[in-house]
Each structure stands twice: as C-alpha cells, then as structure tokens.
Amino acid sequence: MIPASLREQLEATRGQRHAVWAGRDIWLANEAWGELIVSLQGAQVLHYLPAPETGPAAGARPAPTADDGWLWVTPTPQPLPGAIRGGIPLCWPWFADERFADESPERNGPLHGPARKADWRLEAVDEHEEGVELHLSPSERLHGQLVPRAVIQANARRLHVELVTEHTGETPVKLTGALHTYFSVADVHACRVEGLAGARYLDKLDGFAERVQQGELGVRGALDRIYASNQAPVLDDGRRRLRIAKQGSDSTVVWHPDTALPDDTPAEAGRHFLCVETACTRIDPVWLVPGAQHVLGTTLSRDEDTPS
Ligand SMILES: O=P(O)(O)OC[C@H]1O[C@@H](O)[C@H](O)[C@@H](O)[C@@H]1O
Fold first, then answer.
1. Which of 46, 52, 141, 201 would be a feasible disulfide site paired with 37, CB 3.0-4.6 Å?
2. Is residue 70 part of a domain?
3. Which reaction does it catalyse (predicted)?
4. Residue 212 scores a pLDDT above 80
5. Which segments of the chain does DSSP mark as H helices, in order?
6. 57 φ, ψ (degrees, to nearest 5)
C-alpha cells in the first residue's frame, strides 16, 4: 500500500521516469512486467507490484488491485533529512543501536546507520524485456573503510535487493545491517510468519531475553524480535503468501509496535504493515577483512512460485 500521491505519480508514468515525491528524487517504472519505485534517498525501494499472473493458476486467485503493492509506505513521511518509513530501508553499516557494540569512532551515527538518510546515485539502469536491474551508490563516502552499493532487480516474478559491502581499508571491521522491509498487509493482527518455529530469538521488548519460538509466529500485539535463522520465512496475511528468501543473513527481525506507532505513522495506516527484515545483527555480525566483500540480499516472490 502506497500513499495516493505516490500512486498518482505512478499512474502518470509510462515506461520509466524520474520525479520528485515528498522532497525526494524518485525513479519510477510502470511496465508490462509490473511497477517499481525507488527513492534515491537511501536507495530505498518504495513500491513493487508485479503484473497480474495469467494462465490457469491465476484464475484461482483474486486479480490484484492498484492497492496490492507488496510494500507499505507511510502516507505522512517526515521531512528531509529524515528517512522515509516504508518500502525497504537499507540499514548500514549497523543494525539498530549496534553502533554501541564496539568503540570504533565510525559508530557514533544514527539508529540503523547513515545509509538510509544519505543521497544515492542511480549509476545504471539495465533494462530488458523481462524486467529491470538498477545499480546505486552513495553520493558521499559513508564509512572510512567500507563502501556499499545496492543492486535492485525486478520482474514479473520477483523483487531482489542486494546490499554489497566492500572493504577497501586496512583493518578488520565489524558489520551489521538490515534490509528493513515494510510489507503491506491486510491487517497486522491477522498475519502469520512461517518458517521460524523452533528458532531461538532475542526479545527486545523484554530486555533481549532469549527464547525459543513455539510453533509458527502469529502476530497479535507489539513485537520486536531478532530470530537466529537463515531460513526463508513466508509471510501470510490471509490474502497473499510472500516468500522472503535471504542471502548472507543469519538473523530475521520481526517488528511491529502495535499502537505505540512512531509520529510519522497514522493509526489507520499503522495496521497495514509488518516488518520482516533480512538482517545481520548482534547474533551474527560479519567481521569483514581488508579486500573482502559481503552481500546481504533478499528475494521476494509469491510463495506459489516456489516448489515446496
Ligand atoms: O523507527 P526506526 O528507526 O526506523 O526503527 C524502527 C524499528 O526497527 C526495527 O528493526 C528494530 O528492531 C526496532 O527496535 C525499531 O524500533
């Protein structure tokens, strides 16, 4: 679900174009394979909606409506230089407040790191009949030793986002981060996240107490958990099942604040998202050595696309 003002920009797009929304430069595609919007602030995917499926299997499911995008964006984003809440923010080079996890002078910035607020450059758009591939890099250096870049691929079957980190410095660096995906859901209290049963997790709402997930996760109230899991979870909101495949990630974060919503999120809109994040956190930090690279990736697809 995206704000009406963003939907209007999309309706005015045939093919691809640049525009401005909420003070940010955005890039839009409205193509035969589907729709994609990326904000150049943070290299943040704001919207993805694949073209409706055709063929016999498609008939069994309701046709998507204009509101059926897979990602959610708040209708009232905070002004610049704040980050947009929604889509897939890139948390880099640390997740949450892990800037306190060591004493490096590089770790004195904002929650979830500076990347999501920074300006990124769209360096290449590789367009082909079946979809598109975008390459983005930050306009300014964000870390003394680490250099990130983002690759976004979209087609009629999946959205793939990759955050690549290259170590160009001299000493090992601890890296955490997240693809902080805000999924659009019919009602957060009717969501199930499958694939975490039996996984160990840290409960941030209870002082990071360690627990084990009993059965599949049904979302009923506030939750903020870091699961130790490298499995692809499936998010089922009752109308759609999305598979969240991951690369280079042994943590899955599930977050929703229930009624304690942030200031930039109206109550009605706040019922319609759930964050399921592909992450590297305090339980699986990456120690990058000089010359090495790390890829944090996620691939979103309809669960039916994937053989069981
Ligand atoms: O409001 P922000 O900075 O985008 O963070 C949102 C949430 O992000 C989640 O990833 C964290 O686990 C939460 O603790 C945090 O509140």
1. 46
2. no
3. alpha-D-glucose 6-phosphate = beta-D-glucose 6-phosphate
4. yes
5. 4-11, 267-270
6. -65, -30
pLDDT reading at 63 higher than 60: no
If you count them, how many residues does the chain have? Answer: 308
3-class DSSP string for 54-100:
CCHHHHHCCCCCCCCCCECECCCCCCCCCCCCECECEECCCCCCHHH
Contact 132, 35 (CB under 8 A): no
| Alpha-carbon span 40 to 80, nearest angstrom | 12
Give phi and psi for 202, each to the nearest 5.
-100, 130
Nearest to 233 by CA among 136, 305, 298: 298
Atom of ligand 1 nearest to the CA of 95: 10
Q: What ipTM did this prediction achieve?
A: 0.98
How many angstroms does the Cα of residue 304 sit away from the middle of ligand 1? 30
Give the C-alpha separation, 257 to 236, whole Å: 19
Write out the residue range of the structural domain in which residue 165 sits. Answer: 75-305
Asked, for residue 87, whether it belongs to a domain, the answer is yes
Ligand 1 pocket, 282 CB below 6 A? Answer: no
Nearest atom of ligand 1 to the alpha carbon of 279: 10
CATH of the domain at 245: 2.70.98.10
Q: Residue 262 CA: which ligand 1 atom is closest?
A: 1
Answer whether 39's CB lies under 8 Å from 25's CB: yes
Report if residue 42 sits inside a domain: no
Q: What token pair was written down for 113? A: 């790191």
Q: Which of 183, 18, 4, 11 is nearest to 76 (CA)?
A: 4
In a domain, 66, yes or no: no
3-state secondary structure 6-27: HHHHHHCCCEEEEEEECCEEEE
Count of domains observed in the chain: 1
How many angstroms separate the CA atoms of 208 and 117, rounded? 27
Helix (H, G, I), strand (E, B) or coil at 303: helix
Ligand 1 contacts CB of residue 116 (under 6 A): no
Cα-flanking dihedrals φ and ψ of residue 125, to 5°? -125, 110
